[in-house]
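yo

u said u wanted the structure for the complex thing, so here. seqs first:
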Amino acid sequence: MKIALDLMGSETPTKTFKQALQKQSKHFILLGSKAVLKHFPTFEHIVTKSVVKMGDAPKDVLRHKQDSSMAIGLDLVKEKKAVAFISCGNTGAIAALSNSKLGKLKPFSRLGLLAHIPTKKKPLAIIDVGANLYYDAKTLFEYGKLAARFQKYLFQLKKPKIALLNIGHEATKGKQEQQKAYQLFSKKNAYFTFVGNIEGQDVFEGTIDVLVTDGFSGNIFLKTAEGVANFLQSQYKFDLPSLAYGAIICGVNGLVIKCHGKSKTQDLLGAFEKAKHLSAIF
Amino acid sequence: MKIALDLMGSETPTKTFKQALQKQSKHFILLGSKAVLKHFPTFEHIVTKSVVKMGDAPKDVLRHKQDSSMAIGLDLVKEKKAVAFISCGNTGAIAALSNSKLGKLKPFSRLGLLAHIPTKKKPLAIIDVGANLYYDAKTLFEYGKLAARFQKYLFQLKKPKIALLNIGHEATKGKQEQQKAYQLFSKKNAYFTFVGNIEGQDVFEGTIDVLVTDGFSGNIFLKTAEGVANFLQSQYKFDLPSLAYGAIICGVNGLVIKCHGKSKTQDLLGAFEKAKHLSAIF
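structre next:
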């Protein structure tokens, strides 16, 4: 069981990768430039040429960067030479490349980015945090089912509790997409329990397992949470828990984990654990 | 100079209104039911019949609740019998009634809900936090101009710094609406400085004066900030600053302030101060 790890295309320093990779060599295949790889002499590796940059448009990456560490790392998953691919790079590019190389996980038609956040009780899965900026009610419904599948496995749940991120509790609140998704989720099913709409101030109580939203709102939710946490930490001085290690690209045939662009050692270690744990279901 | 204050239609208890209104009687006209008003014997008041409930649809309120405390309070502003109206009630209903009774503030074509949030440096204005769920680039641009006008007055600024809430820094990030708004804001003008896109994790650094977004994202931003703050406060025990006292309904001919549905005494006192301070510009 090998995990492919992308060392390029992010603001995560080589030093951080080095710290996280201590004592882990046999499980990894590292991807990067010669200059970076020389810091990891004992690791299995592949020297790659181009680098996907944070500002690259996904369609340009698909066309012109098939020799990048990101593309080749995903090839390893496709060819079953690795059970998972982990990268701190460009989210849109990872999503597009994962979709193109690994294909959709049936019966889902969209992919979504799933992150875990701490709450007062247990970790909550939030989907989507940035894969799709445009969406309809069916996409939101699929996100719920996708995330429920992961939460069931990760936390041994029978019927995960799903809520829809919205601006009020009533079924009539939100945009048409939220109102229609509310109806779809409300139909009886065997896989999850829909508990209705939830607002941002209640999410952290820990009463739900899955929070469903669109990629724009979800990305803003996650980054705002990070901003507020850092703001309060700077004012009141406390040890902040790691917020967003290892978001999962859900809905493709393979395990792909996207880490924060500025990951810390503990974020990478969290992602490694997640990859080892989840690889069993792929 | 009188301020009309709505005592109905929210989860703010009468006790909280009572505490906030100590020593303030001569500046206020209170609106509410006979049962509530009997707790405020020394205040000028108007007994009102119907109550706008949190779940009421704005169009139903316009049609059937013109005898509510909310509608009659706004009539007082319209008739110049009050310089401001303050309510803790249904946001959509306040926006719709303000629009219908007070009319648009020229040259703006949309109204927006403006809230102030603390940052590491100075209070930041965020618009829109819930008035319009559907929007285009022009709406975002108008929001920026509206909020800049208030920030100029409140903080004696020459050219407020405006940023667009987005999921990345580059001009090509976000949905088409954000990309087009970026172009509109980038044209040179005398009223504000556009500093580009900003992400949620950077908002609280205090480097900007106005944060522009749509009503759905803005509402999620604000409520998420509240949720994270409460979560961390419950874990690490510190005195939390008040986040959202007195959002302003921007873009109508009159001063209307919407307080949190569950306001605390200090939230109401903050809104009273804001009303007194801002009444000079109307």
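Residues 5 and 30 of chain B are 5 Å apart (CA to CA). Chain B touches chain A through 44 residues (CB under 8 Å).
cya
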